């Protein structure tokens, strides 16, 4: 192997790499090449062997080339490239998936030559172990630092690699770096600045040494025990490659100095465990630590168990035995919650209180002992932040491991773990995924909203998660907003009616159901006005509307945006999350102020006037958007009334800054005590002090037929029939159906954003049934051609399923790479199918799509929204197993120029009005103006008697009469009173609603 180009220059070598570092001992095996970069490995991807790039978005993958270099350390070429990464990006060498995996177990590590740029940046390097291939293997990672200039050989012993906890592509396999089935490596390049790199000569080096490949671990880092009990610490020896020990391993142990007192609180122990040569990998020994009982009430006390290991790697952490807190009033479940909170609060230090106000992301827990060190109050999983494998069992195991860490604190205050389960437990693979909120709003069915919340709560709690960052109570006023589908609709009265979901999640408004194994703490978000931001007002990256400014009068704020939160407080919602957006109230003199800084709204309106007694949780890193330095961010948001900060990766900085602000007198201790009291109250209400660990008794119901039936019904009821010329729908089983379109057979597009990952993804992402599969399972005579390239002759009807691909938040804003128009491929499919036969077009999307230019050629048009995993629900209404009953939760515009357009606007001439929705019921009412007069009289009577059921039924009859007459020739004169009527219905003014419908009837 030629390195002469480099070795010829002694001056160049000086200060870089002494020759002794590359020389090998006589008994050391020769290095085994992995990559020479001479062209023997192509730029290719799975299943072939090859080198390929990847990244978080289109700009993130680096560019690669094989460059001729006279100074190449190995051969004549090197791998060179450039990058400019904003998110994440790098490159991979995968071995061929069609060939056997490689065996690296005989070697000490992997090394390569790197041309340093002295950037000071850390560069992660990962290897791929076990599994089916390089993209379905376990990832093990370490890193090196580019703190040098010129060529340097980087050596990475396999013992330095750790199992990745922030991301794994597959289901975990065995969590052991076996090295016998290796599939390649990957390298992540630095983000945030342009750069280039060069790399050469990747190879395996050295001989596997037991002292390097054997390790000693303990069964847990923390071992709680009741006072007087005996803790049993299990000590395991294991080897990389799972071979028996070739040399003895000894573990000398002794109890050390913690907060417990030797002789009084426990009996000291010491000794030596011996694992002789030949001991099987995985062998376990046990150390017993007896504790002593006394009559004093005490906080928890710790006993470190110091381990000294010879012949193997020692555990990363010193295990601790913890004598549980006992006898203190806050531990007495029979006492009222207020007394328990007051007792515990009075015992806590300022640092412990600051910890309770801090929430970190699970991916930040590279040092899980920080949970105890900073007395953290909460952890969360952001979108896509999941354990490996992504199963209910793994979720529960992960969260229990985090909860265990809290037992090493003085008062053993449990964590409250949160997730964004916004349409089912959407981070969990195999969970029941409901329609997004916009579809639930289309159902107009409060009881169904309740049931979807109940299913979500049951599946979330069964994985050990007691807190859900849902529901979103935003009132979406502009469908260019990338979060439109998170809203139940554009009318605050509609949003209000769907808040039965809070009881589905939490149970009774008094919080007494929160201890149940099928209920979770709910979150009303985003307070307040996030659905009203003006297009073009966002200052966040490329966003156009999300996180922008909501400019309103005081009356508009009260009637539109605050109204849903009043209802949420009345329903006992446990937490509230402020919005990223800014609020600009006309005449208040404040201008646009970020919601996380608006004490007038959080302290004054929410907690004061509305009487909200839960706690306020910030949005992800939201305080970083406030003006000023970090200390200002902290004191401004806390003083404004935010009780817990979601600071995913800056939990240390926040906790420290908060303590400093209190000591400096800029945040009062009274404010801290208020915040912590609110947080502790919810933890006591959830029963976490008595049962901190996961209750998985309901796990068998996750994704069960009963739960999926609720989602199926929700999908069916959410379908809105906008046009149905000639009664094309429902389809008949005898008809030959031609199915086409990008969203007919794509479960990822069907479920949308916030599904497994934050942004969601197209393709076969989650278990479920696509719309195409639903049609086939319904017994339809179906032929499928995604792009409509198959011959179209001989069919009775076409079903073209078009729409959007997944997105979330501002990434999906119109103008940020998105529009409200169908893609060219979808337009072509509609044109071809609808020109050849009668056709129904289904729009699978998070918001209305502009289809007016093709409406004449479409016989039936359905707004399918994002129906979730149960495509059978869509098939149910297409084939008539259920009637179409859905109504538009938002106005469907004719053009983007009309936006924003909403019910109640003075000028109102949409394609389809708010509340529109044809039906395929067989019992459609008949009649005309006389019938409407009679319905108005009866509706007014129902209103006076507060007879909601009768009133709603009468208005529905009137609405169907108007739709029969107006279908196909909607005008502004029809649309405005029609939409107004639906708002009146939702506010209980049934008589006025029918009067408005009569006005629309006369105009039709």
Quick rundown:
This protein is of the alpha/beta class and 1004 residues long. Helices cover 27% and strands 21% of the residues.
Keyphrases for this structure?
1004 residues, alpha/beta, six-stranded antiparallel β-sheet, globular, disordered N terminus, glycosidase, Cellulose_Degrad_GH3, Glyco_hydro_3_C, signal, EC 3.2.1.21
Q: What integer is the average pLDDT?
A: 94
Strand residue percentage? 15-25%
Topology, number of strands = 37
Q: Main β-sheet, in a few words?
A: 6 strands, antiparallel
Shape: globular
Fraction of residues in H or I helices: 25-40%
Provide a count of the helices. Answer: 26
User: What value does the Rg take, in angstroms?
Assistant: 32 Å
Q: Distance between termini?
A: 86 Å
Report what the structure shows.
The chain is α/β, with parallel strands linked by helices and 1004 residues long. The chain contains 26 helices and 37 strands. The longest helix is centred in the C-terminal third of the chain and has 19 residues. The termini are far apart. The N terminus is likely disordered. This is beta-glucosidase.
